[in-house]
Specification:
CATH class of the largest domain: Alpha Beta
CATH architecture of the largest domain: 2-Layer Sandwich
Number of helices: 10
Largest sheet: 4 strands, antiparallel
Strand order of the largest sheet: 6-7-9-8
Radius of gyration: 20 Å
Helix content: 25-40%
Order of helices and strands: HHHEEEHHHEEHHEEHHEE
Bound molecules: zinc ion
Shape: globular
Number of domains: 2
Strand content: 5-15%
């Protein structure tokens, strides 16, 4: 284990033995020291996936089963190369900004860059492994009352149920979230060899009728940003750990996925 982390664990143990009066101050100062030593994006992964990621060792993520995964391959990549074969660090290349609507700049796709091995490690290596952890969410039980499947891992189903319960009382938004496009589906993104986020049971597509997708508008690689989904819906999802595909240059405004590390 990383020496800095060992130091942190040992220091926390020592603080536990000290008086409670000094405890908060000491812990804060140690965390401040270590924040500067561990990559801030890796710290965010530890904070948002605490059941899986327990530390770092050199340039590797330490998983809770003691296995290691490279964090930053330090390879310069074009946008296309990064999309096809990103490191875990590359997933943070574009900063996702919650609670606002803006038109994304060229290739600005925060969250569209996914290291597949990272998601397989948490949600399942294959279809049957993912499916073992799928549970039912009652989508807007008082108004739409549809049963949908997402993973229970990382509290995804609990978070989606909270989103659903909040949306259930907001009648003016129901047309956007009725007839949802789907949740779990083990599949590759069209014309690619990359697994969709839907494969891991962490994504939901809302009503296609009010959605825009860059592929539908693409004419010889020319398309213009379009969106009909209100910020009010987007913000409710973001509050509970989901990012929105409407913040991508390659926009997909029906799409939300659980990516708390980006928020
Ligand atoms: Zn989707």
């Amino acid at each position: 284990m990383n020496k800095c982390l060992l130091f942190l664990v040992f220091s926390i143990f020592l603080i536990d033995c000290s008086t409670s009066r000094n405890k908060a101050t000491n812990l804060l100062s140690i965390l401040e020291i270590n924040k500067s030593l561990v990559d801030k994006d890796l710290l965010k992964l530890m904070k948002t996936y605490p059941n899986f990621i327990i530390g770092s060792h050199d340039n590797y993520i330490v998983w809770s089963d003691s296995s290691l995964m490279i964090f930053d391959d330090k390879i310069e990549k074009s946008y296309e190369e990064m999309l096809k074969n990103p490191s875990i660090k590359d997933m943070f290349k574009y900063k996702y900004t919650p609670f606002i609507l803006d038109t994304p700049a060229l290739n600005f796709d925060p969250g569209r860059i996914r290291n597949e091995e990272f998601f397989k490690k948490m949600y399942g290596q294959n279809k049957s492994e993912v499916e073992k952890n799928l549970v039912t969410v009652n989508w807007l039980p008082n108004n739409i009352n549809k049963k949908i499947l997402v993973t229970k891992i990382n509290g995804v189903s609990d978070s989606l149920q909270k989103i659903s319960d909040e949306l259930d009382t907001l009648y003016h938004l129901h047309k956007y979230i009725d007839n949802i496009g789907g949740t779990y589906n083990w599949r590759y993104i069209a014309e690619t060899e990359r697994l969709s986020a839907h494969s891991f049971g962490i994504a939901i597509d809302i009503n296609i009728k009010y959605s825009n997708y860059w592929c539908w508008d693409n004419n010889n690689n020319r398309f213009e940003y379009k969106n009909q989904i209100p910020l009010e819906i987007v913000s409710i999802f973001e509050k509970h750990g989901f990012i929105w595909g409407g913040k991508w240059y390659h926009y997909d405004t029906m799409h939300f996925e659980y990516r708390p590390e980006l928020l």
